């Protein structure tokens, strides 16, 4: 299971309301690193929108089941004599942390980056996948279930 917490986002929202930067009922500026996460079969897929970020400016780290994604959007190199008129795109270093559950295989995370979209694929750990348990037939009609022999008797001891 994938768990998401971002205590600083809530703190930022409260600070904006207290300072009057955002009035209740209005929208604040969207996150500069929006993400989607979904499960597809035996893996979780996490997609981050990072337009304008070069692949070498993206850093992925994992420590104790905490996945940290950092990306830096650098200012565009403007030619000489060019004067910026409007600059609304956020610049700087952006970071998100995801807390991965024990049922995910953090050792086999795959990452790809195409057209400004970072895609992470995290497989479900083998021990977390559902599996069938075979029942072997023993001699004299008894069965072996999880290492114990069960006979034909229907008697249950209380």
Automatic annotation (TrEMBL):
Pfam hit, one: HSP20
Disordered: region residues: 138-158
SHSP domain sequence ranges: 26-139
Q: What is this protein called?
A: HSP20 family protein
- PANTHER family listed in its UniProt record: HEAT-SHOCK PROTEIN 20 FAMILY MEMBER
Q: Which family does it belong to?
A: Belongs to the small heat shock protein (HSP20) family.
According to its UniProt entry, this protein's organism is: Kribbella steppae
Q: Which InterPro entries match?
A: A-crystallin/Hsp20_dom, HSP20-like_chaperone, Small_HSP
């Amino acid at each position: 299971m994938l768990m998401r917490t971002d205590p600083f986002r809530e703190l930022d929202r409260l600070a904006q309301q207290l300072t009057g930067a955002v009035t209740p009922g209005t929208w604040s500026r969207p996150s500069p690193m929006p993400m989607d996460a979904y499960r597809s079969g035996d893996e979780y897929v996490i997609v981050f929108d990072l337009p304008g970020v070069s692949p070498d400016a993206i850093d992925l780290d994992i420590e104790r089941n905490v996945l940290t994604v950092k990306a830096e959007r650098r200012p565009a190199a403007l030619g000489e004599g060019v004067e910026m008129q409007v600059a609304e795109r956020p610049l700087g270093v952006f970071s998100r942390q995801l807390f991965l559950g024990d049922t995910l295989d953090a050792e086999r995370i795959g990452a790809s980056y195409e057209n400004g979209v970072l895609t992470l694929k995290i497989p479900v750990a083998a021990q977390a996948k559902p599996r069938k348990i075979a029942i072997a037939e023993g001699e004299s009609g008894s069965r072996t279930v999880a290492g114990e022999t069960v006979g034909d008797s229907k008697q249950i001891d209380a």
